[in-house]
Specification:
The structure is a single chain. The chain has 6 helices and 21 strands. It has 368 residues and is an alpha+beta fold. The strands form 4 sheets. Strands 3-12-15-14-13-16 form a 6-stranded antiparallel barrel. The protein has a 4-stranded antiparallel sheet with strand order 4-11-9-6, with no helix packed on it. β17 and β18 form a beta hairpin. α1 packs parallel to α6 and α3 packs antiparallel against α4.
Length: 368
Amino acid sequence: MIRFKIRQFILIGLLSSLALTNSLAEVVTLSEMQVTSSGIAIDSMEKVSTTFGKTIPGRVVVPPAQRYVVSAPQSGMIEKLMVAVGDKVVKGQVIAHLQSPDMIAAQRDFLQSIAQQDFAGQAMTRDESLLSEGVISQRRYQQTLSRYQELAATVAERGLALKLAGMNASAIEQLEKNGKISARLKIRSPISGIVLDAQVEPGQRLSISDPLYHIGKLNTLWLEVNVPLEVVHEFKMGDRLHIHGQELDGKLIAIGRNVDEVSQTVLLRAEISKDTGQLRPGQYIQVAHVTETTEPRFQLPSKAVARTGKQSYIFVKISEGFDAKLVSVHAVSGENAIISGDFNGDESIAISGIAAIKGAWVGLGGGD
């Protein structure tokens, strides 16, 4: 408390001294000792070629073309779930076990058609030999050959039915080899990606085509942002939307034509194809519109900007103290501001302790 009162006394004395000794509102005279005692910090400005607009809320979504629904290929009961929401999966990985009585009939029909084809194949081989010896007619051989080809087509058809039912080529090959029929069906992931949603529980009974999982590829993501109708004209295709707090930019790929009746906003969509691992689908983020400029602009801490009325100023360090320079503020994002004005870019400016400088400056006629 005592230290605070002493500092306050020093600051009041400093401001009073400044009010008596300065006659120009543009210049605030300060000695190096006064600068130090009032906690004023000095730093340089950073020249920039891009401007970050005001931050606006957005949401991370998975593009529809990269979302896959894994459905039940047959009716049955979920016996076991092998993955959960958020898990990584690879293409062909078993993600669930389904008990399906329908699979028994499908496998039985497949094995029967193979047995019939084998028998027909033996008959065709025998008739080939008899035809070459002149024992049977060409017509008889053609009938045997036609029967074999018909059964071969049936085998192919029933094998395809098993694939559509969820059996992979390896499982079908094992079925053909050992003839072991099973009601268990292994459901596999159609892609490599992330499990976005699970819609079933073990023991649940499903009909054919009922959804089990949503799986998404996250190598490319979208940012969806709603902006007020009156500022949509500031955006154009290809513009960058910068994610606040991360080194990530999205490229604007769609500007909506519809206006939300309630909020009177328009949907913008940007695509991110690099470093998407830093984002999560459904995540709400803050983004800023990035614009390129040929006009010299500078970035500095937003607290370095002093405002009086509708005008903004920064304080440039000079030998006598500080010179108040009028600036145009183009954007404020987080703790930084983007400004332009009559500067070389190598000026040193006050970035803290602004209240002390402004207090003296206003008292000398610098504004309200």
